[in-house]
Structure formats: C-alpha cells, structure tokens
Design a protein that fits this description.
alpha/beta; 6-stranded mixed sheet; about 35% helix; 7-stranded mixed sheet; Rossmann fold; about 400 residues; single chain; 3 domains
C-alpha cells in the first residue's frame, strides 16, 4: 500500500507491517473489549527526506487525552535523567537574566520541577489532562493544550520569547511536525535553543528493538531527517548527544540558522549514519528480516515453556509490550499476567490480546519460573531490584537485542 510522507509528501511504501494493532497504551476493562479500536501498524522509509515513519498514524486525540496511562515520575532512573537534562540546560544556555523555559509534552512535570525549584520562569505544555493536573498540583506552571504555531504566538504575547524549548520523548509522537517546528521558530529568541530527545533510529536497528514501533511513535529520527525537517523552518541542528535511556536515544540541539556554531558531534554522527546505511532502503529490508526472526524465536520459547508446564509472567505493562504481544500472538494462555506498579493499569487488560495486568505484589508473592521483560529499557534498574527472584531460580526472557533466557 502506498502512502504519502508526512514531512515532504513524497510517496512511500511500508518496509515492515505488524498487521492489526490496538492502541498501545489502551489498557482496558473487560466491558470495553467489544468496542476496542484497531488499526494497521506499518512503518516506511522516505528516500526523499530520509524520514522513517508510520504510514498510517492514529489520530492524536485517541492517544493523548484525560485518561493517559503514562506518568514519567514512576521511574527513578528517568527522574535522575531529567534532573541531569535540566541542569545541563541551565548551565549551558540560561546565563541571561530572567530566562524563560518551555517544555513541550511536559507530562507530570518531572523535568520542569527543577526549573520551578530554581525559580526560573517556565511553562509546561501537556495535552493529557490527567497528567497535566498532577504537574499543576505540584506548583508547576502548565497548560493543557497541543503545541503549534498559534499557541507559540500566544505564549510570546504573554511571556516573551523562550531561551530554551525542551521536549523529551515527545517530538516523535507528533504527526504534524511542521506546525510544531514553525511554533518553535516563532517562540525562540535569536540566541535561544531547542533541545529534544527521542529513541534513535540507529539504536532501534542495531538492537532489533521493533517494540519501539507503535502508534505514539510516529517518527524514528536520524541526524539527516532532523536536519532536513527543521531547516525548512529556519532552525539548524548544532549539536547531538547519545543518551542511554529508552534503549538508546539521541538528544538534538537546534538554534536559529547561523546563530550558533555547529559542533563536531553532528559531523561525526553523520559519518556514522552513512556507514550504517540509514539512508538506504536495503538497510530496512535487513531489519524486517531480523524482526521476523525475533518474533518466531520468542513465540517458540514461550510455547515451549507452556508445553513444559512453566509459568510465564510479563514484567512491565509498557506501551512497547503491545507491539510484542500482538505481533507475536502472545495470549493469556502463554502469559499468565503482566506485573505493573501503575495503579491505573492494575485490574485492566492489555490491548488486543487481553492479558490481565496485576499489581507488582502478585509477582513477588508467587514467583513464576520465567519473567518476560517488557520494560527491557529499564533492565539495569529492574535486575537490581529483583535479585531475590533470580536467587530463587527465576529466569528472565529477553527479546532485545535478541531472544535469550537468562
């Protein structure tokens, strides 16, 4: 099926299709099964502008609403990461008097709270009402809207230009990036910068991390695709920095064209991407083959465990897990339940395959033989927490970067 590139309108074709898929974060009650929404999940590469993207995005109102299930503050590792992010921005870019920081997709205020505590003028923009309210209750200036060029003008009229615009795991969620990029151009002062970080295409390919592909992740950025997109709006990519979070992310720094020098890090990463073939279609054909092998192997491991009467429990009711459970057809017959610490997900069922989500205490009270680690990007934090599980003979089933039992 041909589609049109969301960035440059060129024709693109999917290189990988996952088939019928539910909303990734759409954990639901049994009474909602009959009305569950499904769509076709497929990802394609535009050989004109180098953007990797979903070929049929889901409308944003289905994904970001007043019952959004993800709260950034649940992870201690991410809390530490965002504290570092805030300190880095403050030390490098907020030397002017009375600086103003805007965060797009500020969630529950996990990063902006550091600016609030430092009495730095700030504004969070968060379209999901329930998490926005948490930030507001914590004293963090937040508005519940989607960011675009019109909102940028409103902010400038009320607060002035921003010294820094930030976004973390947000830009890849926004289908209409042109209006966001234009809004960033309008909102930034001449010496201002914009920094955003998202899962990095190179890391996804290297690790066969196909579970990063789901409805909220419309785009999978590379250096070249970011440069081409934002240059259309007078913004220049001046720096990049790899991040270990979310299985491998990249932090991009943008500035008004010609306002700041471009670092060697940008040039070096461009060279790496050329060597990796991130602008060649055959690279994505190889990725598809690796994904299919991973799917078949994971299905084999779980069916063998079931055949041998072993219990398997999922660990982490993540958005990413929805891609894996549905693509690999991992039913409640194969996964007894999914353990998760998020109260809003407990007692509900996973999207599509309908595996029950239970509190963490259900996992700890009666260890299974195997835990399928859906939250693999937090593996280090989880493994440190679960030494008792492994000491008692429990084994982890991993599928990134390859299917293994450890």
């Amino acid at each position: 099926m041909n589609s049109t590139c969301l960035v440059c309108s060129a024709a693109i074709e999917p290189f990988l299709s996952f088939g019928r898929m539910p909303v990734a974060n759409g954990f639901l009650s049994e009474s909602e099964f009959a009305d569950e929404f499904f769509y076709d999940l497929a990802v394609g590469f535009c050989d004109h502008c180098s953007m990797v993207q979903l070929t049929q995005p889901v409308e944003r109102e289905r994904l970001f609403h007043d019952n959004y299930a993800y709260f950034s503050s649940i992870s201690t590792r991410m809390a530490a990461h965002f504290e570092e992010f805030a300190r880095s921005v403050t030390s490098q870019y907020l030397a002017t008097s009375d600086p103003f920081v805007v965060e797009i997709g500020s969630n529950d205020g996990i990063m902006l709270r550091h600016f609030a505590e430092a009495q730095i003028r700030h504004l969070g923009i968060e379209p999901s009402a329930n998490v926005a309210q948490v930030a507001i209750d914590r004293g963090i200036n937040t508005i519940c809207k989607f960011f675009d060029a019109d909102l940028a003008r409103e902010i400038v009229n009320r607060h002035g230009h921003a010294n820094a615009i930030l976004a973390a795991n947000v830009m890849c969620h926004i289908a209409d990036l042109h209006t966001v990029a234009e809004g960033m151009r309008i909102l930034l002062g001449r010496q201002g910068i914009a920094q955003f970080e998202d899962p990095y295409l190179g890391s996804i390919l290297e690790k066969t991390a196909y579970d990063q592909i789901y409805d909220e992740h419309v785009y999978y950025f590379s250096i070249s695709s970011v440069q081409r997109l934002f240059s259309d709006h007078g913004l220049e990519l001046i720096d990049v920095a790899s991040q270990s979070v979310h299985g491998g992310s990249m932090r991009y720094t943008l500035a008004p064209q010609g306002a700041r020098p471009v670092t060697n890090a940008v040039v070096e990463q461009q060279r790496r991407e050329a060597a990796w073939g991130l602008a060649r279609a055959e690279t994505f054909d190889k990725f598809r083959a690796a994904v299919e092998r991973s799917r078949d192997r994971l299905s084999e491991v779980l069916r063998e465990a079931h055949k041998n009467g072993k219990r398997v429990v999922g660990y982490g009711a993540t958005s990413k897990s929805t891609t894996v459970t549905n693509y690999c057809d991992l039913s409640p017959q194969l996964i007894e339940f999914i353990s998760d610490t998020t109260p809003g997900k407990q007692g509900k069922y996973s999207p599509g395959v309908h595996v029950l989500v239970r509190p963490y205490e259900a996992f700890a009270a009666n260890y299974p033989e195997y835990a399928l680690l859906f939250a693999w990007n937090h593996a280090e934090e989880i493994m440190a927490k679960e030494r008792d599980f492994t000491a008692r003979g429990g084994k982890w089933i991993m599928y990134v970067p390859e299917v293994t039992v450890v």
